[in-house]
Amino acid sequence: MTYSLMIQEKEGNTIYLPSTVSLSGQTMAAFGSVSTPCRFVSSPLLDQQIIVTKDVARRLYIPFAADVHLVLDNDTAHLGPLVGIFTAGFTKSPLRPVGKRSFFFAKLLSQEKKVGGFAFLFGAHHIHWETGTVTGYFYTESGWVQREVPLPTVIYNRLPNRRIENSETFQTIKETLKNQYGIPWFNENFFNKWEVYCLLKEHPHSRPYLPDTSLHPTAETVQRFLDHYGEAYLKPANGSLGFGIYHLVKKNGRYECRFRDEHGYNRMRIFPTLSSLWQHLFSHQKLDHYIIQQGIRLIEVNGRKVDFRIHTNKNEQGVWQVSAVAAKIAGKRSVTTHMNNGGIVKTMEEIFPDASVRQRILKRLRDAALTLSRGLEEQMGIAIGEIGFDIGLDQKQHIWMFEANSKPGRSIFKHPKLKQDDERTAMLSLAYAVYLSKKIIAEPEALLQ
Amino acid sequence: MNQQPTVAVLTEIFHKDSCVHFGSIHDFCEELANYSMQRQLIFYVTSLSMYLKNEKSGYRWIDGEWRETEVPPANVIYNRLHSRKAEHSYLFEQLIEQLKNEHVLMFNHRFLHKWEVHQYLSRHSYLHPYLPKTELFRNKQTLDSVVERFPVVFIKPIHGSQGRHIFRIENKETVFLLDYSTSMKDAVQQYASTSELFAALKERLKSAAIIQQGIDMQTIDGRSIDFRLLCHRVHDSEWRVTSAVARMANQEQFVANLARGGEIVPIDNVLQQWYERRKAFQQKMLLKDIAIEVSTILASEAEGLYGEFGIDLAIDREHKPWIIEVNTKPSKQTDMSISKQFIRPSAKAIIDYCLSLIDEKE
């Protein structure tokens, strides 16, 4: 339930609450990391409203009126929550604060109204450590505005790439906010493919979905995978967007290798022996940071391979749900179904016009994605609010999980029929932030686990 | 598919002195034809009545002239009918039905009027900051409520185009000034109350109209500037800005449409006059971002297929961009043609999109 928070023009050190809220001697009000003593007055005239006098609003750095959640603990009434979305790559233009990603974040933040609370965008240089505040970008009815607010209740990590995430600056900021200020993060890291594999292998329900995988492939490992499975993928363990992937196939005693060259073209080369392939492609290149993954005979539609992108989100009750399903069709000669690789996105309706076939496949895909989401969260032991899975169906109808992404790309949502899912996934990320905020206020010790 | 891929333009065909003419898109059709040849497509121009005949004929560009010949059915039709009446005719209905049965794709499906465009866009709250407040002009209450909130408001016919028949109302506290885009001089009228103003408007408004918050536009030498971004669909889920220009209003006019004496100016010239280089770049990118978002939303909200929009934007004195209006049959004058041999990017974009539609169907 949310309340409409209003700021009263006069001073009076008071917060007026509806009489349906049962106070139990609270003497403090809090907003994000800032709290202040004030008077509480229960008013039968208020229905779903909370009125804060100007002085209290100023001391709490409440930026403007909005719909909020109210959480009471022993001595404090918490308004909010204040949700910080952390990123990098800010421009100097306040009208387009994060360059071409500005509309992505605008869409995310504009979902806040459906959820309640305040969400804002910030980067490392927006934090004022001396005052414990941050100058955040809010997206309002009149567009982007900057306001100084307390440090947030929770932080959602949306850094654009692994390089920045691995930087020492970021790691220090994250640890400080987490440990010294007790602010929980969610989706705090990009996933590493090898780590995901190892963790899920220990999760009995997830294990059947995992293609055989091995770290640091050598010529011998490749030989073994190809003898066994006929095809295999070499992928950078920390790769994104399909970059650096090789698809190897053993066919009629010869070895085919498909990859994207440095100019972005899809290439295919054929070798008579594995050692000649190895010699040509990998003798100069260390594959230490690579994994090798069993190749899967994907189902085909009109002669093109199809796999699926499935988004899962936790909702406002902290429960996993499937928020979007799309089919990705590979380009005619490409290694993967990634969008920047000639792949195109289709809805399930477009791929499986027959409703009963579609329902059957959808159910299985959804079940798999939910099982894997729970598995990953249990095994990782960190808060995760959203995952994007690359999932395939082989020609024997077995389901395989190729990749899990903690910051899933949004390209599937450009499809006109998936616009609503775009908004729903954004809304759910914020709904989960509210859930996490309430949880951390109710049981601050939960963070320490 | 055995047949060579075929694209047709549907438009009004005029005959003058035994010559055939395709109105405002005549030269553009030639470029479409030339580029189709490069892409190995069959291309022809047709009209509603021609296309509905059993024996199909159309105009093909052969040896430097338009010749009426027998043509195959099209895989994709680019709808450039410029008459709204034609799109409301029984013939058009018949065409839609026939295309559906024959699995022929057509874009742009039809004109979208200003009020439906506004409704589609306002469903997406992240666009609200760039959408001027807009209401359907229903009665005096609408007039009162909008005039009260904004110093300047516009009243535009929902089916209007080229800046025609637009009223501008300025609230001067004691008096309302009413200006009109289609008359040039001394047209400003004064009214002491909204009742008088409403009576005057009611008499002069001939069709359904919207009433819209006026934007305090940035100007150059006192002339208002707006921006026309031509957007084309690359494939199902991607749009691109093909051309972006600024339009400077004629001294006497409050609209910058070319048809109302506006002139085209390179967008960078305008932005760099207002901003330092980096800021000018961000502003230009923001205009493009907005145009792409608008195109994407309209294509997914509106019924039927859309592959081209002309988006009019403005920037206010606080540097914020605004979505002024969307054109479903945009003029090609803003995408300038340098010479006869030159094929405009917008012509290439149209044909490339047709190809992607044909490809995808296979």
From TrEMBL, chain A:
Organism whose genome encodes this protein: Parageobacillus caldoxylosilyticus NBRC 107762
Protein name: ATP-grasp domain-containing protein
Automatic annotation (TrEMBL), chain B:
Keyword vocabulary terms for this entry: ATP-binding, Nucleotide-binding
Keyword ATP-binding: yes
GO biological process, one term: SOS response
MF annotations from Gene Ontology: ATP binding; metal ion binding; ribosomal S6-glutamic acid ligase activity
GO annotation, cellular component aspect: cytoplasm
Location of the ATP-grasp domain: 287-359
UniProt-listed InterPro entries: ATP-grasp (IPR011761), YheC/D (IPR026838)
Keyword Nucleotide-binding carried by entry: yes
Domain of life: Bacteria
PROSITE patterns registered for this protein in UniProt: ATP_GRASP
PANTHER family reported in the protein's UniProt record: BETA-CITRYLGLUTAMATE SYNTHASE B-RELATED, RIBOSOMAL PROTEIN S6 MODIFICATION PROTEIN
The protein's name in its UniProt record: ATP-grasp domain-containing protein
Species of provenance: Parageobacillus caldoxylosilyticus NBRC 107762
